[in-house]
Protein backbone atom coordinates (compact mmCIF):
# COMPACT_ATOMS: atom_id res chain seq x y z
CA UNK A 1 0.00 0.00 0.00
CA UNK A 2 1.35 3.39 -0.92
CA UNK A 3 -0.09 6.87 -0.82
CA UNK A 4 -1.37 8.43 -4.06
CA UNK A 5 -1.56 12.08 -5.05
CA UNK A 6 -4.97 13.70 -4.47
CA UNK A 7 -6.14 10.70 -2.41
CA UNK A 8 -6.66 10.56 1.37
CA UNK A 9 -3.61 9.45 3.33
CA UNK A 10 -4.42 6.46 5.59
CA UNK A 11 -4.66 7.43 9.25
CA UNK A 12 -1.89 6.38 11.60
CA UNK A 13 -0.77 6.90 15.18
CA UNK A 14 2.91 6.75 16.10
CA UNK A 15 5.08 7.52 19.13
CA UNK A 16 6.89 10.85 18.93
CA UNK A 17 9.17 13.09 20.91
CA UNK A 18 7.86 15.15 23.86
CA UNK A 19 5.94 12.07 25.10
CA UNK A 20 3.51 12.69 22.27
CA UNK A 21 1.63 10.38 19.96
CA UNK A 22 1.10 11.77 16.49
CA UNK A 23 -2.24 10.78 14.98
CA UNK A 24 -2.70 12.06 11.45
CA UNK A 25 -6.49 12.43 11.68
CA UNK A 26 -6.09 14.74 14.70
CA UNK A 27 -4.21 17.20 12.45
CA UNK A 28 -7.17 17.72 10.05
CA UNK A 29 -7.68 21.40 9.35
CA UNK A 30 -3.92 21.89 9.10
CA UNK A 31 -1.54 21.06 6.31
CA UNK A 32 1.10 18.52 7.28
CA UNK A 33 4.66 18.08 6.04
CA UNK A 34 5.98 14.61 6.84
CA UNK A 35 9.62 14.17 5.99
CA UNK A 36 11.43 10.85 6.23
CA UNK A 37 15.15 10.75 6.93
CA UNK A 38 17.53 7.77 7.18
CA UNK A 39 19.15 8.26 10.60
CA UNK A 40 19.10 10.74 13.47
CA UNK A 41 22.26 12.75 14.16
CA UNK A 42 23.89 12.10 10.78
CA UNK A 43 25.14 15.06 8.71
CA UNK A 44 22.50 15.13 5.94
CA UNK A 45 19.65 14.51 8.36
CA UNK A 46 20.93 17.21 10.71
CA UNK A 47 21.12 19.73 7.85
CA UNK A 48 17.66 18.81 6.58
CA UNK A 49 16.08 19.07 10.04
CA UNK A 50 17.82 22.40 10.63
CA UNK A 51 16.46 23.74 7.36
CA UNK A 52 12.91 22.84 8.40
CA UNK A 53 13.52 24.22 11.93
CA UNK A 54 14.72 27.56 10.57
CA UNK A 55 11.66 27.92 8.32
CA UNK A 56 9.09 26.84 10.90
CA UNK A 57 7.63 30.33 11.48
CA UNK A 58 6.78 30.52 7.78
CA UNK A 59 5.33 26.99 7.82
CA UNK A 60 3.24 28.04 10.85
CA UNK A 61 2.00 31.09 8.91
CA UNK A 62 0.94 28.69 6.12
CA UNK A 63 -1.05 26.58 8.65
CA UNK A 64 1.43 23.72 8.19
CA UNK A 65 2.72 21.25 10.80
CA UNK A 66 6.18 19.70 10.31
CA UNK A 67 6.86 16.10 11.40
CA UNK A 68 10.12 14.20 10.94
CA UNK A 69 10.17 10.38 10.76
CA UNK A 70 12.94 7.78 10.97
CA UNK A 71 13.34 4.24 12.27
CA UNK A 72 15.43 5.43 15.22
CA UNK A 73 14.19 4.68 18.73
CA UNK A 74 12.45 7.35 20.76
CA UNK A 75 15.55 8.05 22.90
CA UNK A 76 17.67 8.69 19.78
CA UNK A 77 14.92 10.96 18.43
CA UNK A 78 14.66 12.88 21.71
CA UNK A 79 18.45 13.39 21.79
CA UNK A 80 18.50 14.49 18.14
CA UNK A 81 15.63 16.94 18.70
CA UNK A 82 17.21 18.41 21.85
CA UNK A 83 20.74 18.69 20.44
CA UNK A 84 19.52 20.39 17.24
CA UNK A 85 16.85 22.50 19.00
CA UNK A 86 14.17 21.23 16.61
CA UNK A 87 10.84 23.02 17.13
CA UNK A 88 8.70 20.16 15.79
CA UNK A 89 8.12 16.53 16.73
CA UNK A 90 10.03 13.49 15.47
CA UNK A 91 8.31 10.12 15.09
CA UNK A 92 10.04 6.89 16.09
CA UNK A 93 8.92 4.36 13.47
CA UNK A 94 10.89 1.28 14.57
CA UNK A 95 8.25 -1.11 13.23
CA UNK A 96 8.11 0.81 9.92
CA UNK A 97 4.32 1.27 10.03
CA UNK A 98 4.44 4.86 8.82
CA UNK A 99 7.31 4.10 6.41
CA UNK A 100 5.17 1.39 4.78
CA UNK A 101 2.17 3.71 4.32
CA UNK A 102 4.42 6.10 2.37
CA UNK A 103 6.51 3.34 0.72
CA UNK A 104 9.89 4.86 1.67
CA UNK A 105 11.82 1.68 2.55
CA UNK A 106 14.11 0.99 -0.39
CA UNK A 107 17.11 -1.18 -1.19
CA UNK A 108 20.18 1.01 -0.78
CA UNK A 109 23.89 0.49 -1.28
CA UNK A 110 26.55 1.67 1.12
CA UNK A 111 30.20 0.71 0.85
CA UNK A 112 29.26 -1.95 -1.71
CA UNK A 113 26.73 -3.67 0.59
CA UNK A 114 23.00 -3.65 0.04
CA UNK A 115 20.56 -2.98 2.86
CA UNK A 116 17.00 -1.79 3.32
CA UNK A 117 16.73 1.78 4.50
CA UNK A 118 14.67 4.93 4.32
CA UNK A 119 14.80 6.81 1.03
CA UNK A 120 14.85 10.50 1.97
CA UNK A 121 11.31 11.61 1.05
CA UNK A 122 8.86 14.37 1.92
CA UNK A 123 5.07 14.51 1.66
CA UNK A 124 2.71 17.49 1.83
CA UNK A 125 -0.79 16.64 3.00
CA UNK A 126 -3.58 19.18 2.58
CA UNK A 127 -5.91 20.31 5.36
CA UNK A 128 -8.48 17.66 4.35
CA UNK A 129 -5.97 14.80 4.71
CA UNK A 130 -5.24 14.27 1.00
CA UNK A 131 -1.73 13.94 -0.41
CA UNK A 132 -1.04 17.20 -2.25
CA UNK A 133 2.59 16.73 -3.22
CA UNK A 134 5.48 14.30 -2.78
CA UNK A 135 9.22 14.43 -3.17
CA UNK A 136 11.18 11.16 -3.34
CA UNK A 137 14.93 10.63 -3.50
CA UNK A 138 15.39 14.08 -1.95
CA UNK A 139 18.66 15.99 -2.09
CA UNK A 140 18.91 18.20 1.01
CA UNK A 141 20.20 21.54 -0.39
CA UNK A 142 17.22 23.79 -1.18
CA UNK A 143 14.67 21.11 -0.34
CA UNK A 144 13.03 22.80 2.68
CA UNK A 145 12.57 25.97 0.61
CA UNK A 146 10.87 23.97 -2.16
CA UNK A 147 8.51 22.34 0.37
CA UNK A 148 7.81 25.70 2.01
CA UNK A 149 6.93 27.27 -1.35
CA UNK A 150 4.51 24.40 -2.05
CA UNK A 151 2.94 24.67 1.44
CA UNK A 152 2.47 28.42 1.06
CA UNK A 153 0.91 28.00 -2.40
CA UNK A 154 -1.45 25.28 -1.15
CA UNK A 155 -2.46 27.42 1.82
CA UNK A 156 -3.18 30.40 -0.44
CA UNK A 157 -5.69 28.38 -2.50
Question: How would you describe this protein?
Answer:
This protein has four helices and nine strands. The protein has helices at residues 43-61, 74-84, 97-102, 143-156, and strands at 13-16, 20-23, 31-36, 64-70, 89-92, 105-110, 113-118, 121-125, 131-136. The protein starts with 12 loop residues before the first strand and ends with a helix. It has 157 residues and is an alpha/beta fold. Helix 1 packs parallel to helix 4 (143-156). It is 32% helix and 31% strand. The mean pLDDT is 95. The longest helix is centred in the first third of the chain and has 19 residues, at 43-61.
Sequence of strands across the biggest β-sheet:
5-4-3-8-9
Q: Globular, elongated, flat, extended or rod-shaped: what is the shape?
A: globular
- Note the main sheet: 5 strands, mixed
Please, what is the average pLDDT? 95
Strand content: 25-35%
Number of helices: 4
Q: Roughly how many Å apart are the termini?
A: 29 Å
Percentage of residues in helical conformation: 25-40%
Order of helices and strands: EEEHEHEHEEEEH
User: From the helix content, strand content and strand pairing, which structural class follows?
Assistant: alpha/beta
Q: Count the E strands.
A: 9
In short:
By secondary structure, this protein is α/β, with parallel strands linked by helices. Helices cover 32% and strands 31% of the residues.
Provide tags for this entry.
157 residues, alpha/beta, five-stranded mixed beta sheet, two-stranded antiparallel ribbon, 4 helices
Amino acid sequence: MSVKLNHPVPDFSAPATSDATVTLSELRGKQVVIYFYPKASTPGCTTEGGDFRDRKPRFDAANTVIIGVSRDGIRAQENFKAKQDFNFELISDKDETVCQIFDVIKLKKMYGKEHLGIERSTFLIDSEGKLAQEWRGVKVPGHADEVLTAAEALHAN
